[in-house]
């Protein structure tokens, strides 16, 4: 394992300190407990938005803190959900009197720790609503399982919920918009190489020189199936099929098409993927009206990508276009 | 000799021994979690139980409820992930049910452990056969209760619980996961022991060992 | 070699097509010859700015095309400078009557091909000025060599020259500002892993599991020395020493600190690097007043990073802060 | 028999043979460029000469200047990198100097090649010992000229040029690069043959072979 780290135990604290130093115009960093909060929090009268989860998915979530998006992000250890205490502290730090929305990816650990934090916040008089993001179609949804995982679609939920809070929606309305996005966003990913958790020092899985993992999660957890490497276009088709058939997306839909890099994929490859995905959508009569391409929901240095499609309507489009000012996503200001 | 009570010291020793076992087996637990999870269960449990024992050593508990509530809170605030809140809730409930006492008798211990299991179910909604720590915890406590019907000896009840725990742990191999991260694998989760089931089996191994040793 | 590509021969054409489709609000793409130009080019009366070079360094340069930065980017084959014809075509496409600045990285191939294009453009009546970026201190400068390489500092030159053109400076003034940045910017990089050129299919060098290459170029060309892996802080110190001693940067200087990912490095590692670099600068009494962290000048999937330090003055700071609207860098609009 | 002229057909054959040689040796050229450059010289030369020969086949040149100017333009517009403009300029100048003729005599060919060399120097500013294609081109043309002082046989002059080219190529191994990408390596460029020198040696191999064959 070769990494630009000092003591693996300090990866998160040092990275968060560096993040705070690099983006002091946007965020303040609390070190004990660890969370990242926008400089001007709490914003009086505005619904606060908090997200978080294991580290290793950067820029999600710290890079998404700022006006128009998250009020705070709570990073846990690498690939391990944060404990309730920093979530609670961040929640209190962003409560401007209008309550706080927790945006939680659907993993048992995240769900349980955010749940505890929400209970504790409520006990302290902070109104909290939680939404669960579960956009990954690689995993079959079922009442009898932990359900689908939350992956790159989370970025879109956070942007749009952030815009709703920014325009002054109340907690219930912000939560409803977030839930509407969750209902209309679907994703699926592929890995070409594994990732290495710093304190583990070993790849969490191995892939032969000609193998790829379809339906990979964002923690290097095994996916849907392991197949031989194929041309990019064929891989895109394999991911888009289950995504489009799920809601389903149909001719005439307007969508946001998001090609997300897993951290170690060259940008040329992401655009080769985008090209094919846009082509397939056009063939199906689905209109791509908004786009996003880049490393947003990563799995450390994993090579691979995910495709996310979000069905847009006028309101969601307006909220997507609204100004945002974060380290990773910025426009309109 | 029949041990029909368990002392605060022994219970403290139980947690310490559990810390030792998860630390010794950190790679084994992480390997199990690599196969069907995210390769952190070993480091999660080691970090959490390390913090628990450090806290106990820094300020020893005066009563059983203090001991376990402290352990539970420490796990909740130092582990994260799924196992942090689940093990944390387990010990919190054990402590609350045990109350501010210096010693537990056999039925007292059984009731406290049962409350812990109820807490795990309340948080995680696991059922039998979901391939989780529940599949060790539930049969182990049943075996513990059954043994107490025959004799009030905690030591032999703990032995029975440990043996049921091992059986439960091994039985998770054949199961299809329906809770936690492993559930995302569907059919591909079959053929691997559940990491949380394995660490819970170590919990009963620690209890059995600490009672035999005395 | 595992890559998300179709035929390796088509990597650049397909990626550029995908880029054009994803960013149709910002750019138009010409396919024969291949170049990327802002939608509203030529902007009448504004100095046009063209850059380019081998592909594989994305988002540089295509991701830097848009208001406030480049008017056009000309991507060659992977790691091979473009030929003069697309450079000429792009130059003509962005000439709004005020002339065109070529921003060229100092590689023989880039220099020669841009030179030919400039000659041809002049013959066609377009006034062209060229500046050569050579910020890499890993290579000793000398009258008797090809001189220093141009690396990540190029992004800063392009941003600031773009802002000068945007505020209405004439060609000579824009060129002078660009040259001032070039005089005050220094960089050096490190590689942990090699990169694989798609049509080569093999890494262009190999590094043992415990080796890193100090002073790496952005084409996977060998660097200054090969050493054993060290903690991140020690590596940062190795890069910053030669950078700071070069101009030199001294106590009291105000600088922009730029930590650039080589393409395959997780963001947590870039911020661990940033943290140490900021610490060293603070120790030396050098004030970091502007920052940039991310993948901007990449070498495909190479793991590694480079550090760039630019000495700022009030004018350069104002130009850095000026609005920019490109796929990779955007603020103020 | 003395060949004291070279025909358009032979010159066309020269370029075709050069294409064949760089294509055969694509991996060798790229390997040389991996060691001290960016691993593309083989593919650059193959792509460029492939385009040159395709163009010739699609529309054969009527005169020598048409042939070489076409080849030069094709290299300039299809290769990129350092070798594209340098080889491109070489052939452009060869063509311009040769003029609109159907055949070249020995002094005419020598003058055209010398003009090509001058073009390379004008573009690249290389001097003797900089470890570039210059270190093959210059001694090869010197040998060519020297041979013509003795005999007007182009074939033996080409043989002499090729042998000087090989010597020049091998001599680049010991040199420290002072131009092009390899110069960034400083001392570490020593011990490797320059890729451009190697491809230029193939250029003279092609000329020698095409004349012997006839
Ligand atoms: N809903 C649940 N109920 C009971 N136990 C669970 C549940 N979800 C997960 N677990 C247990 O937690 C273990 C995983 O713990 P760990 O790896 O530390 O956390 P994470 O899954 O967040 O990485 C599983 O092996 C399983 O035994
Ligand atoms: N200034 C120069 N003058 C003459 N030849 C040069 C010069 N710079 C580079 N070369 C030649 O070009 C060769 C490299 O060509 P190539 O690999 O195709 O281009 P690039 O270096 O742009 O990748 C070198 O081996 C050298 O012989
Ligand atoms: Mg985990
Ligand atoms: Mg786990
Ligand atoms: Mg090249
Ligand atoms: Mg080369």
Automatic annotation (TrEMBL), chains A, C:
<feature type="domain" description="DhaK">
    <location>
        <begin position="7"/>
        <end position="331"/>
    </location>
</feature>
<dbReference type="GO" id="GO:0047324">
    <property type="term" value="F:phosphoenolpyruvate-glycerone phosphotransferase activity"/>
</dbReference>
<dbReference type="GO" id="GO:0019563">
    <property type="term" value="P:glycerol catabolic process"/>
</dbReference>
<comment type="pathway">
    <text>Polyol metabolism; glycerol degradation.</text>
</comment>
<dbReference type="Pfam" id="PF02733">
    <property type="entry name" value="Dak1"/>
</dbReference>
<dbReference type="GO" id="GO:0005829">
    <property type="term" value="C:cytosol"/>
</dbReference>
<dbReference type="InterPro" id="IPR004006">
    <property type="entry name" value="DhaK_dom"/>
</dbReference>
<comment type="subunit">
    <text>Homodimer. The dihydroxyacetone kinase complex is composed of a homodimer of DhaM, a homodimer of DhaK and the subunit DhaL.</text>
</comment>
<protein>
    <recommendedName>
        <fullName>phosphoenolpyruvate--glycerone phosphotransferase</fullName>
        <ecNumber>2.7.1.121</ecNumber>
    </recommendedName>
</protein>
<keyword id="KW-0808">Transferase</keyword>
<keyword id="KW-0418">Kinase</keyword>
<dbReference type="InterPro" id="IPR012736">
    <property type="entry name" value="DhaK_1"/>
</dbReference>
<dbReference type="GO" id="GO:0004371">
    <property type="term" value="F:glycerone kinase activity"/>
</dbReference>
<keyword id="KW-0319">Glycerol metabolism</keyword>
<dbReference type="InterPro" id="IPR050861">
    <property type="entry name" value="Dihydroxyacetone_Kinase"/>
</dbReference>
From TrEMBL, chains B, D:
<dbReference type="GO" id="GO:0004371">
    <property type="term" value="F:glycerone kinase activity"/>
</dbReference>
<keyword id="KW-0808">Transferase</keyword>
<feature type="domain" description="DhaL">
    <location>
        <begin position="9"/>
        <end position="209"/>
    </location>
</feature>
<dbReference type="GO" id="GO:0005829">
    <property type="term" value="C:cytosol"/>
</dbReference>
<dbReference type="InterPro" id="IPR004007">
    <property type="entry name" value="DhaL_dom"/>
</dbReference>
<dbReference type="InterPro" id="IPR036117">
    <property type="entry name" value="DhaL_dom_sf"/>
</dbReference>
<dbReference type="InterPro" id="IPR012737">
    <property type="entry name" value="DhaK_L_YcgS"/>
</dbReference>
<dbReference type="InterPro" id="IPR050861">
    <property type="entry name" value="Dihydroxyacetone_Kinase"/>
</dbReference>
<protein>
    <submittedName>
        <fullName>Dihydroxyacetone kinase subunit L</fullName>
    </submittedName>
</protein>
<dbReference type="GO" id="GO:0019563">
    <property type="term" value="P:glycerol catabolic process"/>
</dbReference>
<dbReference type="Pfam" id="PF02734">
    <property type="entry name" value="Dak2"/>
</dbReference>
<keyword id="KW-0418">Kinase</keyword>
């Amino acid at each position: 394992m070769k990494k630009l780290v000092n003591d693996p135990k300090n990866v998160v604290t040092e990275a968060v300190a560096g993040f705070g130093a690099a983006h002091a115009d946007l965020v303040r960093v609390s070190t004990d407990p660890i969370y990242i909060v926008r400089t001007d929090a709490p914003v009086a009268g505005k619904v606060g938005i908090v997200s978080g989860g294991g580290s290793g998915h950067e820029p999600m979530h710290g890079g998404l803190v700022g006006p128009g998006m998250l009020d705070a992000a709570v990073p846990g250890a690498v690939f391990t959900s944060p404990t309730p205490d920093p979530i609670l502290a961040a929640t209190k730090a962003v409560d401007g009197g209008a309550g706080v929305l927790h945006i939680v990816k659907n993993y048992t650990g995240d769900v349980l720790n955010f749940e505890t934090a929400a209970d504790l916040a409520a006990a302290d008089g902070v109104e909290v609503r939680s939404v669960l993001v579960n956009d990954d179609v690689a995993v079959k949804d079922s009442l009898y399982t932990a359900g689908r995982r939350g992956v790159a679609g989370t970025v879109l939920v956070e942007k749009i919920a952030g815009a709703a809070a920014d325009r002054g929606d109340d907690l219930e309305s912000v939560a409803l918009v977030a839930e509407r996005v969750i209902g209309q966003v679907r994703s699926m990913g592929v890995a070409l190489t594994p990732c290495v958790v710093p304190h583990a020092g070993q790849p969490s899985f191995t892939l032969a020189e000609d193998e790829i993992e379809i339906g990979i999660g964002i923690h290097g957890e095994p996916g849907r199936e392991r197949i031989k490497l194929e041309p990019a276009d064929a891989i895109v088709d394999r991911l888009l099929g289950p995504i489009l058939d799920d809601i389903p997306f149909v001719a005439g839909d307007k969508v946001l098409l998001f090609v997300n890099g897993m951290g170690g994929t060259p940008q040329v490859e992401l655009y080769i993927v985008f090209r094919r995905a846009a082509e397939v959508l056009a063939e199906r009569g689905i209109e791509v009206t908004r786009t996003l391409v880049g490393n947003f929901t990563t799995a450390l240095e994993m090579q691979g990508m995910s495709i996310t499609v979000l069905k847009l309507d006028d309101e969601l489009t307006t909220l997507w276009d609204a100004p945002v000012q974060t380290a990773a996503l910025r426009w309109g200001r | 000799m029949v041990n029909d009570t368990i002392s605060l010291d022994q219970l403290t020793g139980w947690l310490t021994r559990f810390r030792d076992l998860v630390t010794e087996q950190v790679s084994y637990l992480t390997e199990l979690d690599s196969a069907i999870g995210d390769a952190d269960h070993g480091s999660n449990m080691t970090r959490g139980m390390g913090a628990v024992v450090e806290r106990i050593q820094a300020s020893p508990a005066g009563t059983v409820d203090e001991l376990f509530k402290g352990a539970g809170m420490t796990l909740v605030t130092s582990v994260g992930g799924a196992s942090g809140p689940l093990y944390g809730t387990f010990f919190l409930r054990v402590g609350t049910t045990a109350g501010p006492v210096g010693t537990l008798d056999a039925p007292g211990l059984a009731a406290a452990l049962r409350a812990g299991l109820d807490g795990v179910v309340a948080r995680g909604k696991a059922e039998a056969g979901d391939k989780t720590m529940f599949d060790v915890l539930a049969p182990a406590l049943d075996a513990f209760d059954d043994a107490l019907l025959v004799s009030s000896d905690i030591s032999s009840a703990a032995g029975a619980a440990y043996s049921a725990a091992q059986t439960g742990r091994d039985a998770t191999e054949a199961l299809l996961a329906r809770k936690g991260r492993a559930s995302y694998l569907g059919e591909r989760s079959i053929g691997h022991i559940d990491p949380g089931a394995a660490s819970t089996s170590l919990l009963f191994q620690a209890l059995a060992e600490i009672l035999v040793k005395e």
